[in-house]
Amino acid sequence: MDPAAFESSQRAFCQRQPAGYVAFVPPPLPPELPLDWELATLLSEADRAVAELSGAGRLLPNPHLLIRPYLRREAMLSSLIEDTYAEVEDLLLFDLEPSQVSEKASIREVANHVRALEIGLRRLEELPISTRLIQELHAILLSSVRGEDSSKTPGEYRRSQNWIGRPGSTVSTATYVPPPPDQLDDCLSAWENYLHADSREPELVKIALLHYQFEAIHPFLDGNGRIGRLLITLFLCARGLLSQPLLYLSAFFERYREDYYRHLLAVSTHGEWGEWIAYFLTGVRDTAREALEDTRQVIDLYHHYRHLMDQGKRVPSACAGVLDSLFAAPVFSIPHHAAQTGESFQNVAKAVEFWQKHGLLTEMTSQKRNRLFYAHPVLDLTRPKPAHSIPPISSFNASLEDVAIK
What pTM, to 2 d.p., does this model score? Predict the structure, then answer.
């Protein structure tokens, strides 16, 4: 890492190590943030959008109809930023029949991300966001995947130096080198102290600062970006800004990923906090507005099928339960649902026939036993939207997951 790439005010945090390389040790939060009326306006718009989304979440008759699809979509997009791709159909099938897709490492990685999000949200009821919780989630994230080996230390902070740069770079030629291992405890302790401290910064600004700082510390050998993005939603829920976990920024970060990495690095090199916070708040505002519209569309679709069921004659008794299940996970197995709910196989099969007749379910197999069905109207509505464009990532703004290990 070249200290000359850092502005003079930032070079004080570039520390030469005994081995000869230079590492960046970010100062404790918060930084000095001058009053900026454009930023204040953006904060107001983001706050209002989050409040509207939170209000919609409180009105959901069945919150699980949306929570699981949103968790799944966030996991897919956060992993996609790290160039780990999974089809939503494969992920749904993995949830239902893991043995059919377990050989695909990318599917397991994304499934682990979903599980980490779910467990993190549940753990908030008994454990605040903390370094302990972060380590628990990291262990889940790297369970039984490519990063699970002794050198990656799932659930443990790194004990060796890592760095960020183009393939083949060394710790001396890297674009960015985070704090050395012997300073991680101090950096993380300061991060956690600011997380729980009473501070003058509005909550959305605070999580923008915390997200940058976590990425700059880069405490793990793998999975830093995914954990850092996961923490955003946990923070918003823990602080009461969201009534339901419906807001995830990975779609915005993926859509404008070059800007994402450029702004993060510019905070370290030039102290450009205002630009980073403006980018982050824009993401919160736009994503909350999109999530609100998505929520309305899903609820409208759900009510459409409820109306068909309520107006129908001789509607099978299991139809309502099958409908709810399909909105949570739009791939369906009759024996699996029967086992999960206690309904008889015959009752569930009749409900499936009803929803096939009304265009909600389509069989994806052509066998007599162990048939699987897709609810394509739900699947199409809840699948991740494609990014407008995915610019190439240069060495300057290389992915914070693209870490070369000494």
Answer: 0.88
